[in-house]
Specification:
heterodimer; A: mainly beta; seven-stranded mixed sheet; four-stranded antiparallel sheet; globular; B: mainly beta; six-stranded mixed sheet; 12 strands
Chain lengths: ~120, ~110
């Protein structure tokens, strides 16, 4: 299976600043997803990022707040802009990869963000 | 849209006890259910899945049967171990192909005591 890494693994940031999270995969993948896991809650999809096209955002998430880049088939970034304490979450990237006749989604280890 | 309802936690069991974590869903079309597990300090990983009705997924002693008539995918294990302590998430893929977004339940934190 492919290996997926994220940087940073955790960070503590001040209100009003921005943080860019990197997601690196060791093989080429067409589709990537960015999820948010708020404290004590489930994972919520932020956006779908396909290489060569604009990211598609889910209801409640906007590009100005969470800009995403997808410069190639192995890399993506998610920026959390103008942060507030409500943005404190774990952010995860994932991608589907064929396993047999099906696609399995693989997740990165996550970036734990704390906003003060 | 789709939704997943998962048994609330936390759940604490003694070693060798029987485990059930309930999961039901609402969805349109032909969804596929999954169980993901998040061990302490590690990333989310697939535990088991089912691709069609009445399929039974199994892995590491865990089982779950996809019951379309009750829209359920309950996770079971006959004898839990301390190493099973983790957070378990039920999830749903809308179209069943695995390359769409996943809808997750709230997660159930399981602690097994020796």
């Amino acid at each position: 299976s492919a290996v997926i890494s994220q940087k940073p693994s955790r960070d503590i940031c001040q209100r009003g600043t921005s943080l860019t999270i990197q997601c690196q995969v060791d093989s080429q993948v067409t589709m990537m997803f960015w999820y948010r896991q708020q404290p004590g809650q489930s994972l919520t999809l932020i956006a779908t990022a396909n290489q060569g096209s604009e990211a598609t955002y889910e209801s409640g998430f906007v590009i100005d707040k969470f800009p995403i880049s997808r410069p190639n088939l192995t890399f993506s970034t998610l920026t959390v802009s103008n942060m507030s304490p409500e943005d404190s979450s774990i952010y995860l990237c994932s991608f589907p990869q064929p396993t047999g006749t099906y696609n399995e989604q693989f997740f990165g280890p996550g970036t734990r963000l704390t906003v003060l | 849209g789709n939704s997943v309802t998962q048994m609330e936690g936390p759940v604490t069991l003694s070693e060798e006890a029987f485990l059930t974590i309930n999961c039901t869903y609402t969805a349109t079309g032909y969804p596929s259910p999954f169980w993901y597990v998040q061990y302490p300090g590690e990333g989310l990983q697939l535990l088991l899945k089912a691709t069609k009705a009445d399929d039974k997924g199994s892995n590491k002693g865990f089982e779950a049967t996809y019951r379309k008539e009750t829209t359920s995918f309950h996770l079971e294990k006959g004898s839990v171990q301390v190493s099973d302590s983790a957070v378990y998430f039920c999830a749903l893929s809308a179209l069943g192909f695995g390359n769409e977004k996943l809808t997750f339940g709230t997660g159930t934190r399981l602690t097994i005591i020796p």
